[in-house]
Write a structure and sequence with these properties.
Helix 2 runs parallel beside helix 16 and helix 6 runs parallel beside helix 10. By secondary structure, the protein is an all-alpha fold.
């Protein structure tokens, strides 16, 4: 992210609360999928918004003059200062992911959920990794041994999407968020194994939040590989917002949301400490402003899913959501090298002209990836993977 993290852009509005007297914990998969509700278009727009936060951070939030010819601190100080908070877009992705993944996973089996995630995330990711390798091989930007950067072991590790656990450098710097998302998916698979009900999902959120508290306080690194104590509050909050959509608001859900959000804002200080406000000092960005920004984003997500903004049907938001994932993948790994090349060879563009050309090029590339790579390959992969869930037994080996 992130998700976006998200299968079939599954930002579909959930059905309303179950009628009074019904067992909200016993939703059959067929009943859940019987009626496909309208899309929550603004949630697609929020995904793009979170992505643009990250893009602003990478393009303008640093003081690297090699990108635009001069430091953003020089040619646009105020925009630079605001963009230093763009890393919060990642936090926003995780919040949206909790909501959307719970929605898309509801009523599915673990196998069906795995198929949706693999077919949604891998096609565009694989293509971008191959583009990055080609770019490094043809137009190397690094100094030193280029072969070591795109060594077959490095490329294969990155194609798994999890080079970090394999102790290999990331070819696409933003891919670390996909690792975090995958760990969240693993936790969701455990819930799906028992079946998604209101009570089970609420129990899952409670257990996860307690585990996050314990892991954070003890510093148990092995457990934290699964608990994700730095980000658990975002995912849990997103899940709770979805439960409010599906089953209606009640005090229990509001209490859970409040506890998860209080926890998340508390541990947010760790992330804040990683982001200096100025170079060559120990001063970091403002925790207060970070907390206000992510809380404001949560409020908009709730308005888009629970409030009046859910009625927005602008189709361009759906298109924007479709481009978010490929744009997120390419904006840093391919966009920044392009910007550096333009700075070197077409300096008359200036920083803002260069930025306009680079951003437009990355959006066009993202559309091409979505239209001619992601959509057809995802359909093919989903069909083949689904077939693999129930293979026909070879009679020659049947007993």
């Amino acid at each position: 992210m992130t998700t976006h993290q998200i299968a079939e852009l599954e930002t579909q509005a959930p059905p309303g609360p179950a009628p009074t007297g019904t067992d909200t914990g016993a939703q059959a998969p067929k009943a859940a999928a019987a009626k496909r509700p309208p899309r929550l278009a603004l949630v697609d727009g929020l995904r793009l918004g979170a992505c643009l936060f990250v893009v602003a951070f990478h393009f303008l939030g640093t003081t690297n003059p090699a990108i635009w010819g001069e430091s953003p601190k020089v040619f646009s100080y105020l925009v630079h200062r605001a963009s230093m908070y763009g890393w919060l877009g990642v936090e926003m992705f995780f919040l949206i992911s909790g909501f959307v993944i719970c929605m898309s996973a509801w009523g599915r089996t673990p196998g069906q959920f795995a198929v949706s995630r693999i077919s949604r995330l891998f096609p565009a990711y694989w293509f971008v990794i191959l583009l990055i390798v080609a770019r490094i091989a043809i137009i190397p930007m690094q100094t030193g041994d280029i072969y070591s950067v795109i060594h077959p072991r490095v490329v294969l590790s990155n194609l798994t999407m999890f080079p970090g656990p394999l102790k290999v450098g990331l070819l696409d710097g933003v891919a670390w968020t996909l690792d975090v998302e995958a760990r969240f998916y693993l936790l969701m698979v455990i819930v799906l194994k028992f079946g998604t009900t209101y009570q089970r999902m609420l129990g899952f959120c409670t257990a996860w939040l307690v585990a996050a508290f314990v892991t954070h306080s003890t510093g148990f690194k092995l457990l934290d590989q699964f608990v994700l104590s730095l980000y658990a509050g975002y995912f849990i909050t997103g899940i709770v917002v979805y439960l409010m959509c599906r089953f209606g608001q009640n005090l229990m859900l509001w209490f859970m949301l409040g506890m998860a959000w209080a926890y998340q804002l508390s541990v947010l200080q760790i992330r804040v400490n990683w982001h200096p406000a100025t170079s060559n000092t120990d001063k970091t960005v403002s925790w207060t402003l970070c907390a206000l920004l992510v809380t404001g984003f949560l409020a908009v997500l709730m308005l888009a899913s629970l409030g009046p903004l859910r009625k927005i049907k602008w189709r361009w938001l759906v298109t924007a959501g479709a481009l978010t994932y490929p744009f997120y993948l390419v904006h840093m790994s391919l966009g920044i090298p392009l910007a550096k090349g333009l700075t070197r060879h077409v300096p008359e563009l200036g920083p803002w002209g260069n930025m306009a050309v680079t951003t437009s090029a990355m959006l066009l590339l993202s559309y091409g990836i979505y239209r001619w790579v992601e959509k057809p390959m995802s359909r093919w992969l989903r069909r083949k993977l689904t077939k693999g869930l129930k293979p026909k037994e070879n009679p020659e080996f049947a007993h």
